[in-house]
Amino acid sequence: MKILIVHNNYGRYSGEEAVVDKTAELFRQLGHEVAFFRMTSEGLRDTLSGNIRGFFCGMYSRQGVKGMREALLREKPDVVNVHNLYPFISPAALFECRKQGVPVVMTVHNFRLMCPTGLFMRDGLPCELCLQRGNEWSCLRYNCEQSAFRTVGFAARNAVARLTGAYRKCVTRFVCITDFQKRKLIEAGFDAERISVIPNSIELPTDRPDGSVPRNDGEYVAYLGRISYEKGYDLLCEVARRHPEIAFRFAGELREDVMMPELPNLKLMGYLNGEALEQFLEGCRFLVMASRWYEGFPMVILDAAIHGKPSIGPDHGGFTEIIGKGEEAIGYLFEPGNVDDLERQVTTLWNAPGNCHELGGKAYAKLQSHYSTEVTQRQWTSLLQEL
C-alpha cells in the first residue's frame, strides 16, 4: 500500500513533527511505501507579508490545493494520512482527495477541529466555549490569541472549514490520540463511527527482553516540560516551598515571563535531551505534571514509565486515562489547579518508596500493553485494512 503523508510544518521542529516522522517510519516498518506532501510555516511571523499570506491561506490556499492535486497525480496513493493543514495547505485541499476517490485518514493531534487555537485553553485554563458547532466567534470575543489579527484569522479559517464541510465530506476516518479527544469530537457533532483512537507510542528498550523494570528510590521529584503558567509550574513550586525536606528538579525551557522562586530544594536543570534526559528520569522518584489545561497526549508520562517511574497529574484531559484510577493506576491524580491536593499526592507518594516501585512496575506494564510501537502498529494495520 502507498500512503501519502500530508503536513504543514510549524515554524520550528515540534513534538507534532516528531510524531509525523515517527508515523512515516511506522508505516515503512509495516511494509508500506510512504510519500510526502509537506509545506512549512518557517519564517511566517518574521514578515508582515508572511503573516498576511498565512491569514488568507488558512481559509483557502491556492498553492495548497494545487500541491495536493499534483501530489495525488504524481504518487497515486492508496490512502492519504493528513496531520496539520494550516496555514499553507488549508482544508480546501481535502476536496482534491475526494475528487480522486482517495480515502483520507486524519490524525488529530490537538483540538483544532473544535477550537480555533487548537488548545481548549483561555488565560491558561481549560475553555470549551467553541466546542459547539458555529461558536468559533467565542475566540474573537475573548481575543484568545492576544492579537486581533491572529484571532480573527484563526476563527475565520475554522468557520470556513465548517461551512464548506471540508472535514465532514472529505475525511474517511479521524484518528484521535486519546479517548478524551474522541469524546470531544463527538460532542462537537462529528460522527462517532468515523472516529478511531490510536495513541502516541514509544519504543520499548531493547535491552530488557524479560520486561524487567529498573528499581531505585530516586533522589528528587521531577518536573519535565515547558516552564510556563498553563503547565502549572508555580503549583509545584509552592509544594516545594512548603516541603524543604523534599528535593525538586525542573527540566525544560524557561519562558521569559516566568519568575522562578529561589528555593534551596529546587534546582533548574535547563532543557535536556539524549543521555542527560535519560539520567534525569532514572534519578527521580516520580514525575509530576501540574498542567492547568488539558494538553494533548503528555508523552513525558511514557518517558517516565520506561524508567519504571510513576507520574502524578491533574484529573482531566488525557491525564486521567493515561495515569488511570484504582487498581489500574500508574500514579496519582489531583484536582486540577488545587495546590493543596497536589501537595497531598506528592507527599504521600514521596513517603512511600515501595508504592513508587509498585506503580512504576504497573507503568512499564501499561506501556507494553497500550503505548508500545508494536501495539500501535497492530492498530494501524487493522485500520488500513478496513479502508
Written account of the structure:
With 387 residues, this protein is an alpha/beta fold. It folds into 2 domains: 2-201 and 373-386, 3-Layer(aba) Sandwich (Rossmann fold); 220-370, Glycogen Phosphorylase B (Rossmann fold, 3-Layer(aba) Sandwich). The protein is 41% helix and 16% strand. A 6-stranded parallel β-sheet has the order 2-1-3-4-7-8, with helices on both faces. It has a 6-stranded parallel β-sheet with strand order 11-10-9-12-13-14, sandwiched between helices. α9 links the parallel β9 and β10 (248-251). The radius of gyration is 22 Å and the shape is globular. The model has no long low-confidence stretch (mean pLDDT 94).
Quickly list its features:
globular; about 40% helix; about 375 residues; Rossmann fold; alpha/beta; 14 strands; single chain; 6-stranded parallel β-sheet
> pLDDT under 50 segments (min length 5)?
none
Number of structurally distinct domains: 2
Q: Please count the helical segments.
A: 15
Strand and helix order? EHEHHEHEEEHHHEHEEHEEHEHEHEHHH
CATH architectural type of the largest domain: 3-Layer(aba) Sandwich
Adjacency order of strands in the biggest sheet: 2-1-3-4-7-8
- What would the CATH topology of the largest domain be? Rossmann fold
Shape: globular
Please give the largest β-sheet: 6 strands, parallel
Distance between the termini: 11 Å
**Rg (C-alpha, Å):** 22 Å
Helix content: 40-55%
CATH superfamily of the largest domain: Glycogen Phosphorylase B
Beta-strand fraction estimate: 15-25%
